[in-house]
Amino acid sequence: MNPINPLLNFSSLPQFQSFTVDSVAPAITKLINDVNDSIASVLNNSAAPTWDNVITPIDDATEKISRAWGIVSHLNAVNNSSELREVYTAQLPAITEFWTGLSQNEALFDKYKQIRASSSSLGLNGTQNKVLSNEIRDFQLGGAELSADKKIRFQEIQASLATLMSTFNDNVLDATNAFTHDITEEPQLAGLPNDVVDAARDLYEKAHQKTDDSNQAPGWRFSLHAPSYGPVMQYAAFQPLRETMYRAYVTRASELSGNSNGKGDNTGIIKQILTLRAESAALLGYKNYAEVSLAAKMAASPSEVIQFLNEMASKAKPYALADWDQLVKFANTTLNMADVSAWDLAYVSEKLRESRYAFSDNEVKQYFPAHKVINGLFRVVTSLYGVTFIETPAETWHEDVQFFSVKDAADSVIGQFYFDLYARETKRGGAWMDDAINRRQVGGKIQHPVAYMTCNFSPPVNDKPALLTHDDVITLFHEFGHGLHQLLTEVDELSVSGISGVEWDAVELPSQFMENFCWEWDVLQHMTAHVDTGAPLPRQLFDKMLAAKNFQSGMGTLRQLEFALLDMLAHTDFDFANDNITALTHRVRAEVAVVPYPHFNRMPQSFGHIFGGGYAAGYYSYKWAEVLSADAYAAFEETGVLNAETGARFRREVLARGGSRGAMESFVAFRGRKPEIAHLLRHNGMKLAA
């Protein structure tokens, strides 16, 4: 008897140990056929459409293909290999064609409209009505109302976009992995932290093990992965090293990255993506792709978003100019640097921070071993929401991955999650949360949610535990905020449970909200222990960190606004037939940025959020949601940041609600009013009138 395909077993958690690339094609083929059979059965049912004879069977069928493909997509991101990439790419057109075809099924669309028309007589609740509203909107955005010939073209566009976006991400990962820089002269390591030097030596030695050369000179290897690249830019005193690394990083996957015959260059791919997105928007009757993107978001129009971003920029720019002026003066007078180049920015900023506040990020890092930080994170969440976390045995895709169960006050499991925290070559960069299983009611029982939480921190070296920078700690809290949105949901309908159905410009609310706790003494004092002495973070050092909290916040704010404006303008009236993304980037920077960028900077070619992910015409969401998160956190500042009563209200009105109602409705239910920008400006050290 043949063992069951691991991608077809939905009775338990994903079976990563049984997964092989050979599992993918037969599983996807079978699941697509099964869903099509279910759709045909629903459409052939002559009874009046109801929730139980239309939506439930469609959810049952589509959930399986979502879960199976979700495993494949996840592994392609965290355990990438040439074999898996080939299979993933081969199946992507079939997956895309299936979802596009489903969204264009007029007969099924008609069933949903009939249910909505009968919703009152069917006794549907508010959550079910929200599901219906979302589904009908998505049918329309998916091209269900297009003519037959336009449907075909729309399907072709979606298939092409899926392939192009996957290729975009592959090119960035390949370019990141392709570059290494070796050093054999120890003086060039000046300024680098010991753990970074140890990791570089380890990487160098592993790379030369195959040579069996006992006379191999000692050396150190650096890469473009965050745990290597970031510290070099921040601490390396040897400017040529910083410049070499910077040039390689900002030209990844571009025409300047050294690829032969343009292979791996994302420049043309960006143009194709923008062109196809604009064409798809025109087919749907929209002026541009940004309007399509905003149809399912809180913001009403591209002009509203651009106005919001420009207003934020006008408030932040005076602070950013002051930041830059202080930086340049410090470099000139203290570091004897005539000019500050882009590859000097992080280094000079770190030296300025050390001078002004008498501490360094590396000093702080020694107090944040990963296991201590995780326990401190769990303490915060337990204090706020009354849930506990138990490490639980489970199959994983890598030995570093941990798995936890979330238990409520009655000691019942309400959710589970995977922690994959450390960088490796087979893993794409960045940090993210994704769903493995969504909460829903099945056969009268609750299917609890399961989440993936992924970061790219520096792994342990030798016998030392992994150490996190304070920025790493903030990243961990951020992703865990997304995870809590997924795990603490109390919604039983699949498409609005957890983060599903939440407006994209509100989905960052719970994540950015969690970042605030990383600046609270009552939180940090319980999650620190010096790697050598075990001593907790000294209060004096914390006070210095707090004083430096808004160090260069003006420049940091403008950087995010620059990305958001580039994204929005590229998806509105950008003339991609006669213009290019590099020229647009230069124009946006000329308008917004205060930091001078070199002419060779090709940031868009690795801007995965908008060209390889789901943030197209939506990157503004980070700042938009930050207004919400800062205001929400102010409620905790008013009652006590670990106040369980306020925490229970936030859980009940925001986290538990998922996408079952509008994000603004959930915010107002928690805060008692609409959001105000004053708290965001205050948290960033800016004044409302600025």
Task: Please characterize this protein's 3D structure.
- Among the domains are: 6-145, Up-down Bundle (Glutathione S-transferase Yfyf (Class Pi), Chain A, domain 2); 179-252, no CATH class.
- The chain is built from 27 helices and nine strands.
- It has helices at residues 24-44, 51-78, 82-103, 106-117, 119-122, 126-141, 148-178, 194-208, 226-235, 239-250, 267-283, 289-294, 302-333, 345-357, 361-365, 370-385, 470-487, 509-515, 521-524, 539-547, 553-570, 581-592, 608-611, 621-639, 644-655, 663-671, 678-683; strands at 180-183, 220-223, 388-391, 402-407, 413-422, 432-437, 440-442, 445-447, 450-457.
- The strands form three sheets. Strands 3-4-5-9-6 form a five-stranded mixed beta sheet, sandwiched between helices. A two-stranded antiparallel ribbon has the order 1-2.
- A hairpin with a 5-residue loop joins strand 4 and strand 5 (413-422).
- Helix 13 (302-333) runs antiparallel to helix 21 (553-570).
- It is globular and about 80 Å long.
- The model has no long low-confidence stretch (mean pLDDT 95).
